[in-house]
Amino acid sequence: METRIYNIDGHSLALAKKIIESGGAVAFPTETVYGLGANALNDEAVRGIYAIKGRPSDNPLIVHVHKDYDLSSLVDFIPEYSKELAKAFLPGPLTMVYRSSKKVSPVVSCGLDTLAVRIPSHEGAQEFLKYVDLPIAAPSANISKHVSPVTAQHVFDDLNGRISCILDGGKCSGGIESTVLDCTGDVPCVLRSGLVTRDMIAQVAGECDEYHMVEGEKVRSPGMKYKHYSPRCMTRLYSYSDRFEALREYTECKKRGLKAYIMCDDGVAEELKINDVLKLGADESEIARNLYDKLREGEQVAEIIIAVAPLKQDGVMVGVMNRLSKACG
Questions:
Q1: Rounded mean pLDDT of the chain?
Q2: Closest CA to 147 of 29, 260, 290, 306
Q3: What is the mean pLDDT of residues 99-115?
Q4: CA-to-CA distance for 248 and 36, rounded, in angstroms?
Q5: Which of 171, 144, 304, 314 is nearest to 229 (CA)?
Q6: DSSP string, 72-103
Q7: Residue range 48-77: average pLDDT?
Q8: The pLDDT value given to residue 211
């Protein structure tokens, strides 16, 4: 199969729709990461996503819809706090989990009675979703457990020969996956942290819980159970307070002839004063936006990436640290 990257226009959208309607998969941009989408109403199409990625079959998917889609056709009940959150944050990087009306394939939710739904804000994603006008099940468009893709080239690097169409929407502006919020109870509960923080949700909904997975429990959201986001090289992760220990390991690796790079924020890079550095940025938005890009850059040039966690650990950095820990911990 020949894989091609297309600009988003009438021709590529018509091609993408044809692929989706025939049960195939298409890679498309969102503001967070690129998604690998297929018709969520088609069992075999959804199974195809798992096969293309090599994704564990008990790891549920998120359904993506355009902003005018009738959400009530997919879910049983939308609580009032969820409606207020939608007004505040959608379209955007927030996935909300509801009781499913069982209209979509059960393969999407791995047998759970819930459905995770997202309305991405990326203009290209909205064009694609509006054009196909179907609920699109989509995990990140990469080989399972590898670093999530934030450019069309990243998708091509992972899925060349496995899919035929990649819609190119430029580099993703958000950089880490959406926040996943359980909206099946009286109080919203964060299942996976992201760019919409727990505090932001609580300000709208009045309160917000945070879920901690129990050993042996069935996965309720993507990104909860398995090793994720991992570059194809050795990795280490140091806390901010141990940044000079990271520098010592870097120095020892260089002495042994290893291609070592330190990945850190701009402030730490200035402190450590080394040449082989993957700079994440100066603030939490830049760090989130650049994390996967720098992990992918690092695996191209380094035998070992030595990551230093930022000093700031709250807000968006909760989501960043979740990914950084799974990638390098």
A1: 95
A2: 290
A3: 94
A4: 40
A5: 144
A6: GGTBS---HHHHHHHHHH-SSSEEEEEEB-S-
A7: 94
A8: 86
